[in-house]
Write a structure and sequence with these properties.
The longest helix is centred in the C-terminal third of the chain and has 27 residues, at 244-270. The protein has helices at 2-14, 18-31, 33-48, 55-80, 88-102, 119-144, 148-168, 182-189, 203-220, 222-232, 234-239, 244-270, 281-291, 303-322, 327-352, and strands at residues 191-195, 198-201. Helix content is 73%, strand content 3%. Helix 4 (55-80) packs parallel to helix 9 (203-220), helix 5 (88-102) crosses helix 12 and helix 9 crosses helix 10. The chain has a two-stranded antiparallel ribbon with strand order 1-2. The two termini are 29 Å apart. A hairpin with a 2-residue loop joins strand 1 (191-195) and strand 2. The protein contains 15 helices and two strands. By secondary structure, it is mainly α.
């Protein structure tokens, strides 16, 4: 079947005039410009620093991809709805701080506590916190018809204020939370398997499980179909009987849950949490989604594309570290990636129209 499609496309291309062929090739190059740039960058880095393709480097990229994947999977749904969520990074920080304050050996935020609650209980707490923020975002967008950017800008500031006050509680006085319990850390960063002498952490498995779950939700459930319908045309979806408000609220709540999982894993992965945890994570997640083909015009996106987007982004960042690029320069590169990816996305949309 695949061979037939390839042969048909080849025959169609061969039948085009020379001018149309040049235009078709130009369209392909422009539409895939981001992938081409990243591929060329990887080739260049590999030549300059051969260790970039070493086993430890590859496992490190996979691990970083797994760590950043949940937040991208969450924010992808918001983009499918033609919106975004810039509160994502702060929700990650809130979840990380809650996890670190409860699953620790020194209870600075809650000095009256003598023992840590179960990991499952803490996970439920952080998931609930993320779901509440997601509900506020979704409800404001669905019921008050506010733009997602304005809504999530507001909740970003609110959540950040909550984090700052939370860290001031007890005897912590705004300090970084550390000294996490061994059970919590081993659950997240323990060894899943070894490739040669390089350990692959447990959170890679969790990222794979979350990816499968999100793929099922997006592709095999009525909720997923409704999400794409609302993103494609909200009025048409409403006429077709889709509960638009409920769909929007659930998408943002699901996103909030994914941010919380990111924070829960991040706290143990880094072995600490503070007010800066999760800062700018939403930028990386948005960039990864757009690179992976999740369109801001709405109703377009695939889970596999998000995974590829996160992976490519982490490859670039890891490669830049190998080249000893100034850390401040990374912000400029992230901004350019988002700008170029959005421009390519809009071009595809205009061509389709």
């Amino acid at each position: 079947m695949a061979d037939v499609k390839v042969k048909t496309k080849a025959q169609t291309f061969a039948a085009l005039s020379p001018k149309d062929k040049r235009k078709r090739i130009g369209d392909i190059l422009l539409n895939n410009a981001m992938y081409i740039i990243i591929l060329l960058a990887v080739i260049y880095i590999s030549i300059k620093v051969p260790a970039f393709l070493g086993l430890s480097s590859i496992v490190n990229v996979i691990s970083l991809t797994a760590a950043k994947l949940p937040i991208a999977l969450g924010i992808g749904g918001c983009i499918v709805l033609t919106g975004t969520d810039i509160s994502a990074g702060r929700v990650v920080g809130l979840a990380a701080c809650i996890s670190a304050s409860l699953l620790t050996t020194t209870f600075k935020v809650f000095p009256d506590m003598t023992s840590a609650p179960s990991i499952f209980t803490v996970l439920l707490i952080v998931l609930a916190a993320g779901a509440v923020v997601g509900f506020v975002n979704g409800f404001s967008v669905a019921k008050f018809k506010l733009h997602p950017f304005i809504v999530t800008l507001s909740t970003q500031l609110i959540v950040y204020g909550i984090i700052l006050m939370y860290l001031k509680n007890g005897t912590n006085n705004g300090q970084t939370l550390s000294g996490l319990s061994e059970g919590y850390r081993s659950l997240v960063t323990g060894t899943l398997l070894k490739i040669g002498n390089v350990a692959v952490p447990m959170y890679v498995l969790y990222a794979v499980i979350l990816t499968v779950i999100m793929w099922i939700i997006w592709n095999k459930t009525t909720f997923g179909k409704n999400m794409f319908a609302v993103g494609s045309n909200e009025e048409a979806a409403n006429v077709s009987g889709v509960n638009v408000s409920r769909t929007i609220i659930l998408v943002f709540m699901l996103a909030g849950v994914m941010y919380s999982i990111t924070g829960f894993l991040d706290s143990a992965r880094i072995a600490s949490a503070n007010a800066s945890t999760g800062w700018n994570y939403e930028c990386d997640a948005i960039a990864a989604c757009v690179i992976g083909g999740v369109s801001f015009v709405g109703g377009i996106g695939r889970i596999s594309g998000i995974v590829v987007g996160v992976l490519l982004l982490q490859i670039i960042f890891a490669g830049l570290n190998f080249l000893s690029v100034d850390a401040n320069m990374l912000y400029i590169i992230k901004g350019l990636i988002i700008l170029i990816a959005c421009a390519i996305d809009m071009r595809k949309y205009l061509v389709r129209k």
